Structures are given as C-alpha cells and as structure tokens.
Give the backbone structure.
Amino acid sequence: MMIRNCKALAAVAALVIAAPLLAGEDYGVDTAHSSVTFQISHLGLSWIHGRFNEYSGSFSIDSSEPAKSTFAFEIKPETIDTANAKRDAHLKSPDFFNVKQFPMISFKSTAVKAVADGGYEVTGDLSFHGAVKPITITLVGGKAAEFPKGVHRTGYSTVFTIKRSDFGMGKMTDAIGDDVYVAISFEGVKK
C-alpha cells in the first residue's frame, strides 16, 4: 500500500517540472486557478475586502527578448463581490463603477522588461471607468509546470495601488479610501 502511494506521489511530482519558458509562448489565463482581489479603507478604521468573479486574459512570454512579451487582462466590474449584496449593488451604481456605462476594466501592456527571479516589470494602459491611465506593475513568479500531463502552465502575481479618484471615482473619499490595493494572481495555460 505504501509503495503504491509513493509511486503515485512520484508520478504527480514528475508532472510538475520547473523548466525555463521558450521564446514566444502564448498563454490563456486559467480563471479556475487565478484571482483578482482588492481592499480599501473604511473610515480609516477597517479594511473592506472584495473580489471580481469574472475576468479573462492572455499573455505571451519571450524569455530571450522580454520586450516582445505582452500581457492583456479584462475584468467585468458587474461581478464585484464584497460579501454584502447591498454594498455590491451600490458599488455597481453610477456612484461608483457605473457598470452599465463602463462594463469592462482592461489592462494592455505597452512595455515589458525582465527583473530578478523570473519576474517582469510591465507598463501598460489601465482603462477604467472611462479613463485610460498608464501604470507599471511588477509581476513575480514565472515558474513552469506541466499539470495534468500535457498541459503546460506558468503563473505570476502582482500587488499594486491605484487612486480611484484618478479614474473618475471620487465620491465619498472621506469615508471610503481613495487608495485601492489590488492583488492579482494568475496561471496561464499554454495555447
């Protein structure tokens, strides 16, 4: 019985391979193994945490020429979830996200450069609430794995801050903070 378990464990371990990425590898974001979360201050007393439940993305990694790499991400603000239905409805209203007029948040890279430990510094345009602003984020990670067999993956994470008032969402900044702390972690499946 123990030998079978060891063989099964060895078989799973053989599927997870830390191999370097090759030039021009294209990936689609696997939303089952990714997340888009945020936190914002309430009255300077506590933090409200939330997430977006629907998003998509794709990226291309060229490890030999990182400047040729690209990242694109889209988030549906209609799917905001702070575990409070009344608050979520207010956040979707014209007071905040105005999801009927602005149904998508998007990010598209304009420049990519390699940083330490397999990460990337990515500059791109964030389109949010009718405004387009350049932001720079640092992606960490970049390990590669094959799981299940034949499915090649890689993943990255980032944490960054935006000012919601920079994107036309300046209501109630005295009660609800202006700084929004965003955390995105995503796995991509090789196309």
Residues 50 and 191 are 30 Å apart (CA to CA). The chain has a mean pLDDT of 90. Residues 2-15 form the longest helix (14 residues).
